[in-house]
Amino acid sequence: MGAEEIRQKLLPRFREMTADRVEKISSALLQLERGTASGEQREELARELHTLKGEARMMGFAAISSVIHAAEDLLKGCGAMPSREQAQALLETCDAVLAMLDQPAELGPASQALVTRLHGLIGAAASPGAAATPATPDPATAAGPTEPAEAGGLRARASLELRGDRVHASIRVDVDRLDEIAAIAGDVLVEGARANRRARDLDGLFARWNRISDRVVLLAEQLRHEGYGDKAVEQLEGDVHLLRSDTFRFSRVHSEAVQGARAQFTLLAERVGSARLIPLSGVLAGFPRAAREMAREQGKELDCEVSGGETGVDKAILLSLNDPLVHLVRNSIDHGVETPEERTAAGKPPVARLTITARSDGDLLALVVEDDGRGITPAKIRATALARGVIGEQQAAGLSARAALDMIFVAGFSTRDQAGETSGRGVGLDVVRRKVTALGGSVTVESEPGQWTRFTLRLPQSLSLMKVLLVRIDEDVYGLPAVDVDSVDRLDPKDVAEVAGIRAVRYRNRLLPLVALGPLLSLNGGPRHPRPTVAYVMHGGEGAAVVVDGLFGEREVAVKAPGAFLKGLRFVTGAAALEDGRVALLLSTPDLISAARRLASPAMSRGRDRRRLRVLLVDDSAIAREAEAALLRSLGHEVDEAVDGEDGWQRLQGGGFQVLITDVQMPVLDGIDLTRRVKASPRFFKLPILILSSLSAPEERRRGVDAGADAYMVKGELDAETLASALERLCGVSV
Amino acid sequence: MSQVRPSSEAAPSGAGHAGQDAWFFCLRILGGRYAFEALLVTEVVRLGPLTRLPAAPSFLPGVFMHRGEVLPVLDIGQLVGQGAIAIRASTRAAVVHSGQWKVAVISDGLEGLVVIPRRHLEAPPAESSGMAEFLSGVARDKLGTIAVLDLPRLVEAARSRAVPAGSAGT
């Protein structure tokens, strides 16, 4: 397939998507102009523009790309609220972009004029009223469409292109509707399993009835033998016989019918699922050429290879996959791939290689974007993150190489000082992560400095059905994606080791952090069995050994979204109905593994015999409170929060707290006075109090201790281990 | 005495309801009578078996399946720090639709619909902690006092405490 052919193939979808994007951008611009846009909407606007720019470049629309770049500049320059004139120019840009879709891709005079106009407006003072252009778009100021020199005959060619579209023997179905059907098919599947269970119960009932009818028949025979048998007994015997055989026949027919229906339901769910699977080639085909040209524009030589295009993927995922891929490829070209000179100097072939590989990995789709460029240096990332204020100095120092690499996915992080046209505006990789996570997937990065960088996207292939390993914590059931579960075994205490302060177990020649799922999820204290069941979970090159209370089997489940209220809740990616009516919550493997890594410290290794405490946390700073609560929860404790001393005191009245942790400087009632009040009350004087303050002066500590606090910790020095041991010291002995 | 709080403004004024009356859904929580705007309740259901949420605050004791949907259970008692509502096999929940959020509110007992003449609604006492933080008014009927809750605000507070802004997806 020639490059132009590929472009033609992708063109209709690009047009469709661009129209959608432009509509989104326009409405966001209108809100921005009105001053009603939230920070999130502004970010979203920036991302949409950024994505549109990237796509336009990939499709060879240099003019659109340049115009959008100028629009981005203007948007950055005009702060939170653009003037009417600026907003008008931006809106007209939107119109122009739509018109430019049907025009030559190169930067013509009209587009150039638009770029100049947008640039001219950067920094222009708000000029309400007088300078405002008419509310209705003035065709003369818009680019493209009214520019005969550029449009004219070439536009006719564009319409010829459109006529070339094939008519497909298929119909377009709204993805939402397909989702609805898939959800119903999933529900029906569960209903089938339930019916099957009921059929089994019914069989049990019939078996009992069978036994009783045997006794009735026996009794009737006895009566007959003993000469009591009259016609009524004989008739009863006959009726029982008949009823029994009818029951037996019904039971068999019913069981068969239920099983048949169940098989059909399964088929239905599978077919609906596969109706949503579309080969990836539609998205991937355009990349080799686009990537090559993009590299060439930067004076770089690149060979881009795509494999696995035949892999099928859910329609909803396919639609959302384009943006992350564009970002990743662009990122590789901008930051990874070196110039031929640099490559030669480094002893590499002058032409760089970029590979995009897709493959099915069980139920998951794995997409790997790998380049043989300069790689990513953790130290550089650390320094940049620090310089941009993404993290603090202390955090930077404690950042592991792996965690440092992960920083590139944080919003606001961009390693380029000069914003390149292609990427480096601090939007990009965070978009990738956000989009992929929203789809229930993950994105990870690995790199060998100087050698290569590899991004791995893992996404569910189908959104409707997923194979999961169901595990038990107490009586509750949770699901782990089966593709992430390497194996399940009994844990031999002999295999557990403490390495560099981390509790770990050796598995397939590597050490994995070992954690109990119950405490990890703040659900219970962990299994009591001396050789508990352990699931070895792997995800994106990382793994953990997760100890569970028991197994509930492996099966394919219909995945349900957990509902808006729970969206974003840590650990939970979805839910599935079990045939007994319960809900199995599906857990996110990346969340589990990252939590396991944090938790496997020596303090936590004693988690199994440490109690789960109910903590009242009093802090007026929402941010600090969140961080502290998260830390406490990561230690397996239950946290109730109060916003000041008075609020804390009120909450304390509800009872049930085992420790009070309080800040000092707070409105209404400060931490010192709260401590005094608690320690003076006959009901609570035994309650251990830990003061957590940002004040580290010795006199401050003394003030806290004088008020009756049992411990005093400084916020800046807070970490999981010291907090865990302080709590253990305070609450470990008493009950 | 005649001051009317937002909850009654939101109550239906037309559509067959007398403008003089406010409709509330009333339930008992930890010995107190509480009510909120009746229109927010879509139905009353018996709780299915609960599955606990990982790393979730205590006011979200779990989720259950209802009509093919996963519904989180909200324990208002725990949210305001007054203590947990006991969940039994017989526990019923009011399915509440507030804005984009849908939750099942549990209680110690449901009284159901209560119609209060608007003139019997009073402003809440000026307190800002515990349950008082979420009060939008106080009503009286034959059975006594009812604390009228600003349920949308309460549900919003529950959501933002359960999933702090910016933590989504991390």
Index terms:
heterodimer; A: 735 residues; alpha/beta; Four Helix Bundle (Hemerythrin (Met), subunit A); Heat Shock Protein 90; 5 domains; six-stranded mixed sheet; five-stranded mixed sheet; 24 helices; B: 170 residues; mainly beta; OB fold (Dihydrolipoamide Acetyltransferase, E2P); 3 helices; 11 strands; 41% strand; disordered N terminus
Can you give a write-up of this model?
The complex is a heterodimer of chains A (735) and B (170). Chain A is of the alpha/beta class and 735 residues long. Chain A has five domains: 3-163, Up-down Bundle (Four Helix Bundle (Hemerythrin (Met), subunit A)); 175-275; 279-460, Histidine kinase-like ATPase, C-terminal domain (Heat Shock Protein 90, 2-Layer Sandwich); 465-605, CheA-289, Domain 4 (OB fold (Dihydrolipoamide Acetyltransferase, E2P)), CATH 2.40.50.180; 614-731, Rossmann fold. Helices cover 48% and strands 19% of the residues of chain A. In chain A, strand 21, helix 22 (671-680) and strand 22 form a beta-alpha-beta unit. Chain A is globular, with a radius of gyration of 33 Å. Mean pLDDT of chain A is 79; it is low at 125-168, 415-426 and 602-609. Chain B is mainly beta and 170 residues long. Chain B has a single domain (6-162), classed as CheA-289, Domain 4 (OB fold (Dihydrolipoamide Acetyltransferase, E2P)). Chain B is built from three helices and eleven strands; from the N terminus they run αβββββαββββββα. In chain B, the strands form two sheets. Chain B has a six-stranded mixed β-sheet with strand order 8-1-2-11-10-9. A five-stranded mixed β-sheet of chain B has the order 3-6-7-5-4. In chain B, strand 10 and strand 11 (144-149) form a beta hairpin. The relative contact order of chain B is 0.23. The model of chain B is unreliable at 1-18 (pLDDT under 50).
